[in-house]
Every structure is written in structure tokens, then in C-alpha cells.
Specification:
Blueprint: H1 2-9, H2 12-17, E1 25-28, E2 32-36, E3 44-50, H3 65-81, E4 92-95, E5 111-115
Antiparallel strand pairs: 1-2, 2-3, 3-5, 4-5
Bound molecules: adenosine monophosphate.
């Protein structure tokens, strides 16, 4: 749909995925990108996104099950590799804000991974 293409053309996370806007990347494969949040809430705060423009969890379908499974499987591994401490004394928060009521500001699906020693700036 052209509206999807228009949205993707103006999407900041699509531009990061395409290398048009710089980001501090921590993971990349053919369909997923991980990068540090520009305004971290905690000592560790990174985002995982599908490279393909999916606006939010509201657009996820059964066809995305493998992609979402891969993202959720990567999150704990990347959390430990990027400074989160092991469960149960350490741990992290995994958040997916969805829509206006969910506090979503960037309309490209992203998974927040937030952790490290407290206190945190937020949350
Ligand atoms: P949300 O409120 O769930 O949509 O979160 C969007 C997140 O994207 C916020 O935590 C922002 O700090 C982060 N963010 C926005 N622009 C960038 C960027 N250029 N690079 C890295 N993180 C960003």
C-alpha cells in the first residue's frame, strides 16, 4: 500500500536500518537491527527492530511469529552481552510500547531492553 511506503519513507528507524541516519549498533542480521537508545533510561538501554517497516505490535500477524520469536530470543543474550547482569539478582526490563495509549512515539515496531544497576533515570 502506498500509505505504508510513505510511512516507511519518513520513518526514522527505517533510515537507521538503511544506514541513512547513524546509530550505535550492537547487533545486525538480515532482518533485525539492534542499537543503543539515544536517550537511555538506565545504564543499559537498547532497541531491537525488524528492518522491515512494521508500525507496531498492532500490525503483527501469524506470519511474523518466527521474526518475533527471533527478536525475543536475541533480547536476553544481547542484554547480558551489553552490560545487564544475570537473572535473578540482575535482570532487565523488556518493553514494547504500542500506540498512543501505550506511549509509543516512534511508529516502527521496537523492543526496548533496559537494565543495569539501579537507580535508573526512569522506570
Ligand atoms: P517509544 O516511546 O517506545 O516509541 O520509544 C522510542 C525510543 O526511540 C525512545 O526511547 C527514544 O529515545 C528512541 N530514539 C528516538 N530516536 C532515536 C535515534 N535516532 N537513535 C536511537 N534511539 C532513538
Amino acid at each position: 500500500m502506498s500509505s505504508d511506503r510513505d510511512a516507511a519513507a519518513h520513518c526514522i528507524f527505517c533510515k537507521i536500518a538503511e544506514g541513512e541516519i547513524p546509530a550505535k549498533k550492537l547487533y545486525e542480521d538480515e532482518e533485525i537491527l539492534g542499537f543503543h537508545d539515544i536517550a537511555p533510561w538506565a545504564p543499559v538501554h537498547f532497541l531491537l527492530i525488524p528492518k522491515r517497516h512494521i508500525p507496531s505490535m498492532a500490525q503483527i500477524t501469524p506470519a511474523d511469529a518466527a521474526l518475533m520469536g527471533r527478536i525475543m530470543t536475541l533480547a536476553p543474550k544481547l542484554a547480558l552481552e551489553n552490560g545487564c547482569q544475570p537473572y535473578p539478582d540482575g535482570g532487565y526490563r523488556i518493553v514494547i510500547n504500542t500506540g498512543k495509549h501505550g506511549g509509543q512515539e516512534v511508529e516502527h515496531l521496537h523492543i526496548h531492553v533496559i537494565g543495569g544497576p539501579r537507580p535508573w533515570k526512569h522506570g
